[in-house]
Amino acid sequence: MPVVLFNCNLYGVLMLNFISVNIQLVSTKILLILIKGYKKYISPFLPPSCRFQPTCSEYMLEAVERFGPLHGTLLGVKRFFRCNPFSTPKYDPVPPKVKT
């Protein structure tokens, strides 16, 4: 009987892991579609205003691809708030992903 309980628990853990990975993949895809849509349909009608290279939308796109939806969005929002008329224009790439 304990073997069956172990297998049920293992199955539950595997299913939760599968669901969490799928949620992350789906939310990443949705964010990438939204960012690409902004770059294609909205950005061309706005004057260039980003003070950094790569632009804020390119930075957000790369950050979400590299770090996933949560951490990538946080990096992009942090970068967006640094981009203002008082900041010095400069090259500011997405930080490399640290292997743990």
From TrEMBL:
Topology class, membrane: Peripheral membrane protein
Entry keywords, A to Z: Cell inner membrane, Cell membrane, Membrane, Transmembrane, Transmembrane helix
GO cellular component: plasma membrane
Listed InterPro entries: Membr_insert_effic_factor_YidD
Cell location: Cell inner membrane
Coiled-coil annotated residue ranges, if any: none
Tree of life domain: Bacteria
Keyword Protein transport annotated: no
Reported function: Could be involved in insertion of integral membrane proteins into the membrane.
Family, as annotated: Belongs to the UPF0161 family.
Protein name (record): Putative membrane protein insertion efficiency factor
Organism (species): Atelocyanobacterium thalassa (isolate ALOHA)
Lineage: Bacteria, Bacillati, Cyanobacteriota, Cyanophyceae, Oscillatoriophycideae
